[in-house]
Amino acid sequence: MTIPKLFVRFSWKHLLMSAIALGVLLRILNLGSREFWYDEVLSLLLSNGQKNAYHTPRDVPVILAEYTSLLSLPVEVSIRGFITTFNNLFHSLLGGEPHPPLFFLSQHIWLRLFGNSEAAMRSLNAMVSVGAIASIYGLGKLLGGNRGGLLLAALLALNPFYLFHSLNFRMYAPLVLWAILSAWSLLHLTYQQDNDTPKSRHVLLWNVILITSVAAGLLTFYLYAYWVITLAALVLYLDRQHWWQHGLRLGTGVLLTMPWVLWGTLKQLHNADLKRFGVTPQSTNPLLTHLQNVAQTLGTHLVVGDWVTTLPLTSVIFSGCITILLLMLCSISLWQTKEQQKLGIALILGILPLLLALLIDFATKKFTLGFGYGRTMIIILPGCLLLLTLWLELATPKQWRIPIAIGLLLLYLSISIGDFSQRQRSVFHSVAELILQQPKEPTLVAMNSQAWGHVMRLAYYISPQSPVMLLAQKPVELATNLQKVLKQDIERYPRVIWLDSDNPVWSRLNTEAEIQREKQRVQQVLSDQYQLKKSQHLSGTMSLDNFTVNIYERFSKN
Predict the structure, then answer these.
(1) Which residues of 112-144 are buried (b: 16+ CB within 10 A; e: fewer)?
(2) Which of 278-292, 407-421, 493-507 shows the lowest mean pLDDT across its residues?
């Protein structure tokens, strides 16, 4: 009987390790499998310090290659040029970006080392996510033993939401690392307070980790403040007797951010457009919207991942309701065991930040939980996965423990693989390939969007050697300005590519009738002098990627 038990333990341990390795492999294989999405190209523009050099396209065509140069580091011939680039980076952040500088500074250094390719720019976040997986093993082992640590690490490695953000050139993957490290170190310090002779070397190490992760989190994303409050609540829950010692540690981490807060944050608050956070239709019931946002956030984090950009809202909310029910059942089961303290830890780490954000939204009449498909609350992911892990390890009957865990891992794996294999994003690659079919023919790209995410993605993927001019206008102005351009110098443009965006971002028309009217106006302008050769609909992983490409060529002269 001993050998089969050892074999089961051996195979289960190695199965979990294989799941972790598979999660790492998925990150490596998909570093460059998708083109940059809208926000990623903005991150690139900010990271190389050239955001302030960007100008919204005017009502006359501009050489597209002039924008391409903004996506690379500026030419630096001396140390003065190097300092100027860093200075421009900080001024770019102060000029309207609502995020702290740490992510962009680290990516700037990475950009200097490895270039601006998709794989290069995403590789730092991928490495950070591997660090998060390793760290959450330590957190899980502290609370659930070695097997619990491996299961928790495997769940994070294959979680569809975190896999996506591990390969997303934005600041969300590092947030998970800082959250895990701060919680892990705080728990270590709390438990060491109970020992009579704690090792001073280890205490110093965990102090440094806690203080650094608190400061780094706040310098990565301002809403990390919810997490700092959560850590304070954890102190009061576990070790109220030594609250002032833990308070000094947390306070030191916060104080390290004060130079930036006093110099940079105040300027950002003055310049940034904060009204875009939490806008909701006037006819919507605010209470219902808040509840939907909670369900959507939990469903996205623990089930659907980046599929949230494609699935109907009702499906995401339904998955969120199922998730809420599951978490409640897990909590009840754990409460019935002798592990109520660990249940409290998981609930504080996984649910309290969400409740804090919901409370702030109520008080300020904002809807930040619904912004960005819930990614602003990615800090709750480790705590929610910890709750599932503790339930499986401590409250689930032994005969069901492994089948349920395998089923959950397979669910995550299938959703993650399906996301990256079935939902391609190569819209602007396709436009570039259409232009390369006649690489030397002068081309005018007419686009009904001035959004910089659209303009800069065109500039990134279309070769600067191609003779391409860009006329990017608001939908209501495109037909009029296109007509003026062609009237002045039609001979210059033997080919016109009309990019019709389904979502022009900041210049959307209000009704379908208005949209169709402007499309007909553009068609009329082009049909007078050009022949439609090809029309193709391109789509990606979200509405921002959806375009109709119409290729027009001038009528042949007889």
Answers:
(1) eeeebebebbbbbbbebbbbbbebbbbbbbbbb
(2) 278-292
Residue 194 has pLDDT above 70, yes or no: no
Answer whether 88's CB lies under 8 Å from 75's CB: no
Give the Å distances, CA to CA, from 137 to 82, 131, 281, 387.
40, 10, 43, 14
Report yes or no: 327 and 183 within 8 Å, Cβ to Cβ: no
DSSP 184: H
Range list of H helices, 379-493: 381-390, 398-422, 427-436, 452-461, 475-489
Q: Tell me the C-alpha to C-alpha distance, in Å, between residue 274 and each of 230, 268, 542.
A: 24, 10, 23
C-beta separation of 165 from 128 below 8 A: no
Q: Return the ∠ at Cα 153 (arms to 201 and 208), rounded to 5°.
A: 25
Both tokens assigned to 247 = 């308070």
Q: Tokens 């702030």 sit at which residue?
A: 360
**Sheet with 443-447, side-by-side order of all strands:** 62-63, 468-472, 443-447, 495-501, 547-554, 530-538
The average pLDDT across 290-296 equals 93
* Segment 465-476 mean pLDDT: 94
Kindly state the tokens that stand for 20: 């972790």
- Separation of alpha carbons 526 and 78, rounded Å: 49
User: What tokens does 402 get?
Assistant: 């492994």
| Listed residue (417, 464, 434) closest to 547, CA to CA | 434
Mark 214-223 as b/e (b = at least 16 C-beta within 10 Å).
Answer: bbbbbbbbbb
Residue 267 pLDDT > 90, yes or no? no
Helix 225-238, helix 243-255: angle, nearest 10: 170
pLDDT recorded at residue 287: 87
Structure tokens at 120: 């290069």
Strand 530-538 relative to strand 495-501: parallel, antiparallel, unpaired? unpaired
Pairing status of strand 443-447 against strand 547-554: unpaired
* CA–CA gap between residue 219 and residue 103 (Å, rounded): 8
| Predicted local confidence at residue 557, as pLDDT | 57
Burial class (CB in 10 A: 0-12, 13-18, 19+), 73: middle
How far CA 181 is from CA of 132, 168, 187, 205, 383, in Å, comes to 8, 21, 10, 12, 12
3 state DSSP class of 229: helix
**Is this prediction's pTM over 0.90?**
yes
CA distances from 525 to 61, 476, 483, 487, 517 (A): 16, 14, 6, 10, 13
**Mean pLDDT value across residues 329-340:** 92
Mean pLDDT of 10-17: 85
